[in-house]
Each structure stands twice: as C-alpha cells, then as structure tokens.
Amino acid sequence: MSDALKFSKIFSNSAFAIENIQPYYFRATSTPLPEDISLITHITVASWPQLERLAENWQAPISATLHIQSKSSPLSPDIADILRDLGTKYRSNIAMSSHVDIHLYFSPPASSPSLALAHNVDRNLARLFARTEFICDVPAGIIPATRIRNTLRTNQKSFTPRLRDGDVMVVPLFTFIEHAAKHSAVPRTKASLLSLVSKGIIGLDDKHWELGNGPTNFERWRNSETLYAVKDYEVHYEPIVIQSRNAQPWCPERFADNEAACLFASYLNGADFWVLPDDFMIQLEPKRGNDLSNFESVIQNRLYAKSHGEMCVHFARQLDSLGLWDTPKAKNAIAQCSRVISSWGKGLIGKPE
Description:
This protein is of the alpha/beta class. The chain is built from 13 helices and 13 strands. The model is unreliable at 346-353 (pLDDT under 50).
C-alpha cells in the first residue's frame, strides 16, 4: 500500500494535501533508543543550513519536516534537482546522515500565507514520524546549549513518570539582545549565561513578553537549583518543552503557526509545566517577522481567542467522560474554563445571565 493511500485512509478528514507527504525521504542511519529525546522541527530549502547547525549541536535524533512549496509537481525536473542537491548535502554531513530523519511535505502555492505556511501541520508530521518516546519542538534557528539528554537520563526515575502522565518540561530560551554574537560565544553553562544576562547581552525570551519577563519567571530560574512549576500560565505561553510523543493532544491544524494552541491543549488536558533549573537553549537567528498579512494576523488571533471556550468544553467533556473530572487531572480545565462551564445549557459563552 502506498504512503498516499495509507494517509488518505488514516487522515480522511485532513484539509491538507496528504498525498504529497513522503515520510523518511532521508532516513538517518542511527537507530535511536526508544526512551531518548528527538528534536522535532520544520524547515524549507532556504533554512537547510539552520538544520545542519542544529544537528551538529544536538548530535542525537531529529525528526524534521521539509516543506517545499512550488507550482511544479513533486516529480518535475526543477524539484528533482533541488532534492538531489539536498541529498548530496545530507549524505556529506555526518551529523545529518547519522541522526536526522527528513520527511518531505510538498504543497502547491496557496492563495493565502496562512494556508501555505501551515506549520502546525509540519509540527504534527515531524512528531508523527519521530522514532523516540520523548520529543522537543525546536525551531531550526535555535540550538540546545546544555546537555539536555543527560539531564533527562540522570533524572529518569522522577522525570519519566511525569512525562508519561502528560506533564511537560520547560527548557528556558534565551536570545541575544544584539544578534552579533558568533557561534563560539554561545554560553554553555548557567554561570556563563547569567554573566551575559548581568551585562545586558542576553535575556530570557518568553514569546509575547518583554525579555526577562513571562511565565517562565527568570528571577526564580536564576536562583533555582531544582525543578519548579510554572505558576502564571497564560494562553499565549509557548515555551520550548520536552514532552511525551504519545501523551499529548495533537497541534490544532486550523492555525497557521501557533504553538501556544498546541500547549494550551496540553494544559487543558492536565499538563503541569515544570521548568528545568540548569538547562537552556539559545536563539541564534534574529526573530523572524510575521509571514502573514495584517489582515490574516487579525483573523488568526481572533480565531485563537474564539477557540478558547471551544477547547475548554472539548477537554472538560473528555475528562468527565473518562471519569477524571474529580481528579487533579482536571484542575487546569476547571481553573481555565470556569466561565464556560458555568454557562452550559444556556447557550452562552461567558458569564450566565
């Protein structure tokens, strides 16, 4: 049975061109241990060098979606030339050929960027084909600065049950205030990182918050020596997290590129967010601008805002049907969705009359 036929049956309700997905177009020669961590990411032809840098820094499993958008068919000569060139680069880079699985997703040009740049779809594909139990969604312009796999291995007895139960481990992300730092200047220890923070060279980057602010709580992280829970979760919070490949809901694919929606689903499903005290990642590239038009950004933002109530109801009903409503698993849904739940039966979203 061809991949296209398999996907058409498995994902019969998908709105995307699943017949143009080729999993493991390039397959790594190393077989990862099941309990290892795979980085999952998505790239285009233009961002291939970022994936090479990520692989060289990680030296461990990566599952990447290569999204190619073209008016030509996947079998056309121009696309074949591009893939042949990438194949040469892939095989000549030991870190890539040893550790990186690349899944080809070919899509025709779309009338709107939100359809063309459906990165939540890319995320789900990379996760679907990851070959380890634990995954970490990392944009290709970011690199792990510390030995995160060693942290998971050392704390396996305490971390693994939490991850399998649906919790996530937050890896703090830091970005250079002026993106002039060279690769050799990347801090590799917490002490060296804090030194750069004190000099105003680098700062904690919670997207949607000013540097140094946000739910990850830099002041607490600075002084912490143990795992701690995020206390001020907010629906736009989208940190880098380690999670179970099998325990989390899938990213909602109606959003163009919204990892906050993926993590909001995890939160409503009962996940606690635990911050690693000594590990971190570094944003090497300047932040990418918004690929959407102003109009599409407004539509996407409104769609996400309107989805909060719907997602609350969905997960509340699911938890109740599983007999988990009166357990700690439902605490996040109860806290986040109390206004929605209180209006059930009245056709309202918000405070009941």
